[in-house]
Design a protein that fits this description.
Length: 63
């Protein structure tokens, strides 16, 4: 069984990173927020791909 973080957990992680990373420069924080958002989207896409592959593999094994 795979564990994927919930939307709430991803947002909480992003908030914690923003508050604890030690960077106070507004421009750098903004850039890091954009990077985090993109990485979260990429993670979701990879999770979707894994779910699709798991389904396809299960179907192939059944037949």
């Amino acid at each position: 069984m795979q564990y994927f973080p919930s939307e709430t957990n991803l947002l909480r992680l992003q908030q914690l990173a923003r508050e604890t990373i030690g960077i106070t420069n507004v421009d750098r924080l903004r850039g890091m927020k954009v990077e985090q958002e993109l990485l979260i989207k990429e993670l979701r896409l990879v999770q979707e791909h894994l779910e699709r592959l798991d389904t396809e593999i299960a179907d192939i094994v059944k037949t």
